[in-house]
Amino acid sequence: MSQNLNEKINDVLADRQLSISAITRELKDKGFAEHRLVLTGYLRALRDLKKLQEIEVPPSKVYKRVESHEKCTDIYSMVGDQIKNLDMEVRLALAIYIISRLFKRPVFREELLHLGINNKSVANCLESSTCMVTLSRDENLKLYRSEITRISIPVNDPAYEVKTEDAQLISMANMILMETMKDLVDLSGLTPKTKQTKLVEV
Questions:
Q1: Residue 57: strand pairing partners
Q2: Where does the pLDDT of residue 199 fall: very low under 50, low under 70, confident under 90, or very high at 90 and above?
Q3: What was the pLDDT predicted at 88?
Q4: Which contiguous run of DSSP H or E holds residue 5?
Q5: pLDDT for residue 200 is more than 80
Q6: What's the pLDDT score for residue 96?
Q7: Max Cα separation, the chain?
Q8: What is the edge-to-edge ordering of all strands in the sheet holding 60-65?
Q9: Residue 22 main-chain phi, psi, to 5 deg
Q10: What one-character-per-residue DSSP string does 3-39 give?
C-alpha cells in the first residue's frame, strides 16, 4: 500500500508543487482516501528521505518532487533544507551569507524563494533593527542577473548581502555546509559507528 501511495504522490506532484490539502484531494480522486494527519506524516517522512522538498508558503507548506538529478545540483534545496527550522532572521542571514560566498555575488530575491524564504519574511526582517542583512547596492547587479542561466531572475529583482560577518554567523555557515556535504557524499565506512565517550577523571 505504501509503495502504491508513494507512486500516486509522485504522479500527483509531477511538474508542480501542491499543499497537503491539495494532495489529499487529488489522492482521494484517485481512490486513496488517507486521513490528512496520516498523509502529513507520510509526506514529512518522504521529505526526510530527500524524496520530496518541503517549501514554506505561509500559512501552509507545499511539496514538490526531488528529481534524481536535483539531489546533486540544486544547491538552493540542499541549503534551504538545512536551515528551514531556524529563526527567520538567522535563517535569512545564513542563506544570504552561504550563497553569496559560494557564488561571489549578492543574492537575488528569486534565489531566496528557491531557498524557501518568501518575500514577506524578507520584508519583515529588513524592518527589524536586529536584521543582519541589507539591500545590495552593488553596481554589477545588472551584469549578475544576465549571467545567471540556471534559474530565471526578473529584470528588476533586488539583491541582498550581509551587513557584517561575525564569528557566530561564519561558524553556523560552516556547520551548514558540512551537513550539506554529508548529504552529497557517501561517508559509510569512514565514520565511527559509535561516538567515543569522554573520560571523566575520578
A1: 60
A2: very low
A3: 93
A4: helix 2-12
A5: no
A6: 97
A7: 67
A8: 18-19, 60-65, 52-57
A9: -65, -40
A10: HHHHHHHHHHTTTS-EEHHHHHHHHHHTT----HHHH
pLDDT at 175: 92
| Residue 135 DSSP label | E
- Say whether 64 sits in a helix, a strand or coil: strand
Pairing of strands 107-108, 18-19: unpaired
* Cβ contact 98:80 at 8 Å: no
Q: Which residue has the higher pLDDT, 194 or 169?
A: 169
List, for residues 116-171, the tens digit of each pLDDT value.
999 999 999 999 999 999 999 999 999 999 999 988 999 999 999 999 888 999 99
Do you know the residue count of the chain?
A: 202
DSSP 85: T
Q: How many Å apart are CA 174 and CA 76, to the nearest integer?
A: 16
pLDDT in the model for residue 137: 95
CA separation for the pair 20, 23 (Å, rounded): 5
- Residue type, position 139, single letter: E
- Beta carbons of 83 and 112 less than 8 angstroms apart: no
For residue 83, how far is the Cα from the chain centroid? 7
How is residue 56 written as a grid cell?
514554506
> Phi, psi at residue 190, to the nearest 5°?
-115, -20
Strand order across the beta sheet in which 107-108 lies: 107-108, 159-162, 133-135
Kind and range of the H or E element at 88?
A: helix 88-103
